[in-house]
């Protein structure tokens, strides 16, 4: 079996980044961190997650993230499954983060997209069916 362990994101401000991800994942914690150099530039880093998966944040980011409405190569978005999408939306709203856009209307799932403090698009999905054929069905555009 293979599963995703972590995603490593370059950010500009770890504390501001953590305000978003702590709201989304209140059961996660900082697993570790430190300081170092990346090709001659000092940076701090933290691993934020649980015992099985985490997000790594490095604070040596410069400039803007890719234009999400454009066609540049790069990360489009990443997604997490939740069993209570309304609670995620409310926790993020309480920290000042609004839904950027809703996902497509589907009777078997609800999804929303947020933009984190660094310009990464993060999707949250709640499946309303446990049947794979329903969960994974997409209408052709």
Explain what you see.
The protein is α/β, with parallel strands linked by helices. It has one domain: 2,3-Dihydroxybiphenyl 1,2-Dioxygenase, domain 1 (Roll). It is 18% helix and 35% strand. The chain is built from 3 helices and 8 strands, in the order E-H-E-E-E-E-H-E-E-E-H. A 4-stranded mixed sheet has the order 1-4-3-2, covered by helices on one side. It has a 4-stranded mixed sheet with strand order 5-8-7-6, covered by helices on one side. Strand 3 and strand 4 form a beta hairpin. The longest helix has 11 residues. It is globular. Pfam families: Glyoxalase. This is Glyoxalase. It comes from Shewanella colwelliana. InterPro entries: Fosfomycin_Res_Enzymes (IPR051332), Glyas_Bleomycin-R_OHBP_Dase (IPR029068), Glyas_Fos-R_dOase_dom (IPR004360), VOC_core (IPR037523).
Short key terms for the protein model shown above:
single chain, 2,3-Dihydroxybiphenyl 1,2-Dioxygenase, domain 1, 4-stranded mixed beta sheet, 3 helices, 141 residues, alpha/beta
How is this fold's topology laid out?
Elements: E1 6-10, H1 14-24, E2 29-38, E3 41-49, E4 54-58, E5 78-81, H2 85-94, E6 101-102, E7 109-115, E8 121-127, H3 132-135
Parallel strand pairs: 1-4, 5-8
Antiparallel strand pairs: 2-3, 3-4, 6-7, 7-8
Organism: Shewanella colwelliana
Domain VOC: 3-127
Protein name: Glyoxalase
């Amino acid at each position: 079996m293979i599963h995703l362990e972590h995603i490593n994101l370059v950010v500009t401000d770890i504390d501001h980044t953590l305000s978003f991800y702590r709201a989304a994942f209140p059961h996660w914690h900082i697993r570790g961190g430190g300081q170092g150099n990346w090709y001659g530039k000092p940076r701090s880093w933290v691993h934020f997650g649980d015992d099985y998966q985490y997000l790594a944040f490095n604070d040596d980011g410069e400039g803007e993230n890719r234009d999400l409405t454009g066609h540049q190569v790069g990360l489009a978005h990443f997604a997490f499954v939740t069993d209570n999408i309304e609670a995620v939306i409310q926790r993020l709203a309480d920290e000042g983060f609004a839904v950027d856009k809703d996902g497509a209307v589907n009777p078997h799932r609800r999804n929303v997209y947020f933009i984190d403090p660094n310009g990464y698009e993060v999707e949250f999905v709640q499946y309303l069916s446990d049947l794979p054929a329903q969960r994974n069905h997409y209408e052709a555009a």
